[in-house]
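Case study 2.
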Amino acid sequence: MVKFFSSYFLILLVFTSGTLLCMVKGDLCWDDLGGCDAACDQKCTSKRPGGKGSCDDHGRCKCYYDCILPAPKTCTAGIGRCTAACDNTCCRKNCAAKFPGREGHGICNNAIGPGIYNYCICQYKC
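Prediction:
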């Protein structure tokens, strides 16, 4: 019985070590960043530090990176009321200006009902 658990533990240890080695080496992952342009590599490195962007044969910008890198965290903030003078377009612009370089984008959210509670909600990389 002890020998069985010893063998089982040894096999589990070998398997886990092999898995950890693969995680340390990392597999290659990729994100599709849309249509390809001259800024493909720059878009990639801003989204995935250490990543490398390149265009594929179909004109798509692909961002290749080590899979063990964590995905960027997204934060949400309310940045003011939406009004007739400041609609969704204004909200998006204000969000981008408030969080420059962090891919901020906003939308007017009327959670309770139109005109009752309309707030500019901004999502950005934190």
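The first helix runs from residue 2 to 25.
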